[in-house]
Design a protein that fits this description.
By secondary structure, the protein is of the alpha/beta class. Helices cover about 35% and strands about 10% of the residues.
Length: about 475
Amino acid sequence: MNLIARNSFRLRALPYHLSSLNSLRHQATCATTATPSFPCVDAHAARESKILASSFHRYSQIGTPASSSDSGPEPPYARPNPLSYNTYHHQYPFALTYGSTLPSFDIAYETWGTLSPSQDNVILLHTGLSASSHAASTELNPTEGWWEKFIGPGRALDTNQFFIICTNVLGGCYGSTGPSSIDPEGQRYATRFPILSIFDMVQAQFKLLDHLGVQKLYASVGSSMGGMQSLAAGWLFPDRVGKIVSISGTARSSPGSIAMRHAQRSVLMADPNWNNGFYYDQLPPHTGMKLARQIATITYRSGPEWDQRFGRKLREPKDGQGPSPSRLPTLCPDFLIESYLDHQGEQFCLKYDANSLLYISKAMDLFDLTLSALQELAMTPATHAPLSPSSSSSRQSPVSSKSHPPPLHYAPHFPELAAGLEPLKLIPILVLGVQSDILFPVEQQRELVDALRMAGSTQVSYFELGGVWGHDTFL
C-alpha cells in the first residue's frame, strides 16, 4: 500500500517537475543565445576606428603631456617638441657592433647647469628604455621631466655644480635616429634598421661629447638600461669617465629579464598591424603595444605596492554607481588593478614607436660584459690593452660586503664576468639596488659588486633601497 501511494504521489508531481525542467531549459537557452557584451573590447575597437578615421600620423606630430597618475612614479610620456631639444648630427658613417653601418645619425639632447671653463663638471645621464632626453624641465620645455626630482640646484645632480647632459638613445623615437627615421632613400627605416647594442648607444653619445669638446666626464650616471649604459661608458672609455653610478642595472642581462622582454616583443609582433615593422602612415600596432606595455608595467612594479595602492578593490561602474554585493563579475576589468594596467597601456601605446621598443629591448637582452661575450664581439676599450684570460691570475677574491653576505657558490659565469669588468677597476663606482625589484633583482647588483671587487676594484660602493615600488623606484 505504501509503495502504491508513493508511486501515485510521484505521478501527480511529474507535471510540476516537467514544468520546472522546461523553465530551466528556457533560461539556459536564453543564456546561451543572448549576445554577450564586452564593453572593454568595444572601447578598444572604437579607439582603433577613431585613429584610422582621423588618419593619425603619430610620427610627425608633437604630443601633449600625459596626465600624471595620482600615485606611483610613472613618468609622463609625450613626444617632445623639436624646438625644445638640441640635435647633434653625425654626418660620417658609424660602424655598429654587429657588423652594420649607419650612414649618419642624429642624437637629441638637453642640458642643465653651466659648463665650467675647464669642462670638467659634465655628468652624462643615461635613460631607461623608453625615456626621452627631457629628464627635467627647462626654459624651452617647462613640462616636468622623468627625473625632475633629482636635477636642479641643491639636488642629487646639482646644477649649481654640474653640467648635465641627457640624450635620447640611438634607436629611439624622440629626436634621435631610429627605425622611424628617414633613410638615405627617403623611406622610413622600419625593420631595415640595423640591430643595435648598448655599446652603440654609448659610442654615439661620445661622438656628441667629442662635438661639445668634452674630453672627460665627471660621472656617467644611469638607471635601468641607463645603468647598463653607465657601465658600458666606463668600459669603453675608462680614461674618459671619472665616476660611475649604476642604479637598478646589471652587467649581464639575466634569462629572467630576457624572458620578460621577449613576451613583450612577442605580443607586439603578433599584432597584424605591426606588418613586419612597416606600419608607418597606417594604423599602428595599437593592440600589441598596449599589451606589451601592460606586461612591462607588471615587471616594473611589485605585488606589495599594488596591495597597498589597489588591494582587491573593484573599479567604479561606468554608470557611476558604486560596487554592490549583487554586482556580477565580467570578463572585462572588474578590479582597480586591471583598469590601472589598461590605463597604462593606453597612455603609452600611441606615444612611443613600436619598432623602437623592439630594437632597444633587444639591445638590453644582448648586453653582456662577461669576457667570453666581449671577445666574441672583438670588443676592446679605448686606450686599453686587449682583454686576456691570463689577467685572471692577478685578480683577487671578492671582499665580503658590509651590505650583503657573499654567496656560498658563485654562478658559473662569475669568473668570466669579473674578467670582463677588469677595465673598470680604477673607476670609483656606486651601485644601487632595490629589494622589491623583480626585473633587475638585487642579486644582479650584488653580483656586479662582487665581480668588480674580484676584478681588483677597491672603490666600489653598494647600497640597497627598501620600499615597495619595484624597479621603478629609481623614478
